[in-house]
């Protein structure tokens, strides 16, 4: 039939065929291109798994999912949104298009969409449907979140041959077309490269009409001062990310930024101590948000319980703030911890108040671990129940 012989594995329509799908790296091309409907379905599976539900039966969701997804810096659980991760992975393709030299896929994309003199915010022809056009649409998604898609990437000047003088972000904050719109309107060569405008005697201008108005002359003087000292070299241009200290692009940086926009933090001040088991810290985090199935909370949700009284002291109501803070047993453990840390005893009324107090203790490991150990002891007692 005249077909060319090939070997397995190979990629067909972006999906690996004949590869060992038990290896994580072989799933990367699939994950990078996951549509929103698939992301939403995967998020639903994660949410159901977290609370122990199944396809046939749902379980009570004790904490809002947007709080679970929020980063720990925002007092969330730090699970991370799959949508944020997916957008960050798509964003990486923009970075690769601008930063990699001449891979075959880049040559194909640039040829189809005629990108030789296109700025970073115009990297596709809308009249040509396909995967690349869908990928570029993430700029609109980020814009709806209040994030400037192009603000996070800038050019480090070398030869200046592939850097657009007006339209690329190569000097200062933002491109020159946005910062000097009056001069940009007067230029006849709006898509010229930096190397084409630079000479040993200064910059070469191609005005449609020489700047003459006072505001135009003032802006031209500002532009000349900004360009004073700019030099080119024989090195190729390179791109750098503004989200990292070393200028390299990391998916985690943009993912974290996007996640802060699509999730909602909490007022919890959980102290994340590495020496304390993660399961216990998660318990404390849930308790601070009243997300533990105490007898009173179960009763409020229509679940039948024998009693809503505290099983430890019989005097209080079975709610988290009482079980971990106000119960007589909890107070005794607290006194022991304060004595061990050589700190005057302080009485609390809620889990959040205790966590706020611990957060103000500073960076003393002994003190933070002391309060954490108390929470561990109380949590273990709660999980195991009274003798």
List the helices and strands and how they pair.
Elements lengths: L9 E3 L2 E3 L10 H5 L3 H15 L14 H5 L12 H18 L4 H10 L17 H6 L1 H7 L8 E4 L19 H4 L1 H6 L7 H4 E2 L2 E2 L10 H14 L10 E4 L9 H12 L15 H11 L6 H6 L19 H7 L1 H13 L10 H9 L5 H20 L3
Antiparallel strand pairs: 1-2, 3-6, 4-5
InterPro entries: RVT-Znf
Organism: Lactuca saligna (Willowleaf lettuce)
Pfam families: zf-RVT
3D structure, described in words:
With 387 residues, the chain is mostly helical. It has 3 domains: 144 residues, no CATH class; 87 residues, no CATH class; 107 residues, no CATH class. Helices cover 44% and strands 5% of the residues. It is built from 18 helices and 6 strands. The strands form 3 sheets. A two-stranded antiparallel sheet has the order 1-2. Strands 3-6 form a two-stranded antiparallel ribbon. The model has no long low-confidence stretch (mean pLDDT 79).
Which key phrases capture this entry?
two-stranded antiparallel sheet; elongated; two-stranded antiparallel ribbon; 387 residues; mainly alpha
Low-confidence stretches: none
Counted by DSSP, the helix tally is 18
What is the terminal separation in angstroms? 79 Å
Radius of gyration: 29 Å
Q: Helix/strand/pairing class, anyone?
A: mainly alpha
The helix-strand sequence is EEHHHHHHHEHHHEEHEHHHHHHH
Report the count of strand segments.
6
**What general form does the structure show?**
elongated
Average pLDDT confidence is 79
Query: What is the topology, as strand order, of the major beta sheet?
Result: 1-2
Oligomer: single chain
Strand content: under 5%
Percent range of helical residues: 40-55%
What does the largest sheet look like? 2 strands, antiparallel
Number of domains: 3
InterPro entries: RVT-Znf
Protein name: Reverse transcriptase zinc-binding domain-containing protein
Pfam families: zf-RVT (PF13966)
């Amino acid at each position: 039939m005249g077909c060319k012989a090939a070997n397995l594995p190979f990629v067909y329509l972006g999906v690996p065929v004949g590869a060992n799908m038990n290896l994580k790296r072989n799933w990367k091309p699939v994950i990078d291109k996951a549509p929103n409907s698939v992301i939403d379905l995967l998020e639903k599976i994660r949410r159901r798994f977290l609370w122990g539900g199944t396809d046939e039966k749902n379980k009570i969701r004790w904490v809002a999912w947007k709080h679970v997804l929020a980063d720990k810096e925002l007092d969330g659980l730090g699970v991370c949104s799959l949508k944020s991760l997916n957008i960050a992975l798509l964003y990486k393709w923009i970075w690769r298009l601008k930063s990699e030299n001449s891979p075959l896929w880049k040559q194909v994309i640039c040829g189809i969409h005629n990108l030789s003199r296109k700025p970073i915010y115009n990297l596709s022809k809308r009249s040509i449907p396909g995967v690349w056009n869908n990928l570029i649409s993430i700029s609109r998604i980020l814009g709806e979140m209040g994030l400037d898609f192009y603000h996070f990437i800038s050019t480090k000047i070398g030869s200046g041959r592939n850097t657009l003088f007006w339209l690329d972000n190569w000097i200062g904050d933002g491109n020159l077309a946005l910062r000097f719109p009056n001069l940009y309107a007067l230029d006849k060569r709006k898509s010229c490269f930096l190397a084409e405008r630079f000479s040993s005697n200064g910059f070469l201008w191609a005005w449609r009409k020489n700047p003459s108005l006072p505001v135009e002359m003032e802006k031209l003087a500002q532009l000349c001062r900004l360009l004073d000292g700019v030099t080119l070299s024989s090195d190729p241009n390179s791109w750098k990310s503004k989200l990292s200290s070393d200028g390299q692009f990391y998916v985690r940086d943009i993912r974290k930024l996007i996640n802060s926009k699509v999730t909602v933090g909490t007022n919890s001040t959980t102290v994340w101590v590495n020496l304390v088991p993660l399961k216990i810290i998660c318990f404390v985090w849930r308790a601070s948000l009243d997300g533990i199935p105490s007898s009173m909370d179960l009763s409020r949700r229509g679940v039948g319980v024998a009693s809503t009284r505290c099983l430890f002291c019989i005097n209080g109501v079975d709610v988290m703030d009482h079980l971990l803070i106000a119960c007589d047993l909890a107070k005794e453990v607290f006194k022991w911890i304060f004595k061990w840390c050589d700190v005057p005893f302080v009485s609390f009324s809620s889990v959040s108040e205790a966590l706020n107090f611990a957060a103000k203790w500073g960076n003393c490991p002994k003190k933070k671990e002391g309060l954490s150990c108390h929470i561990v002891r109380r949590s273990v007692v709660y999980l195991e129940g009274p003798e």
